[in-house]
Amino acid sequence: MAYVISDDCIACGTCIDECPVGAISEGDKYSINPDMCTECGTCADVCPSEAISQG
Ligand code: SF4
User: Would you say the C-alpha torsion 45, 48, 50, 51 has a positive or negative sign?
Assistant: First the structure.
């Protein structure tokens, strides 16, 4: 299962530079493209809001 970003996202931008495959997109709330996510977990580790988890 790809990782997903919850409503706890504060759009800080921390995760977007960490994703090795560029699967994260900006927005009011950031989102992860499930077709690109390799489930590495890097984004979940860096999110200060703990808004990212495996969906
Ligand atoms: Fe990118 Fe890894 Fe997060 Fe998937 S789990 S969105 S590949 S950083």
Answer: negative
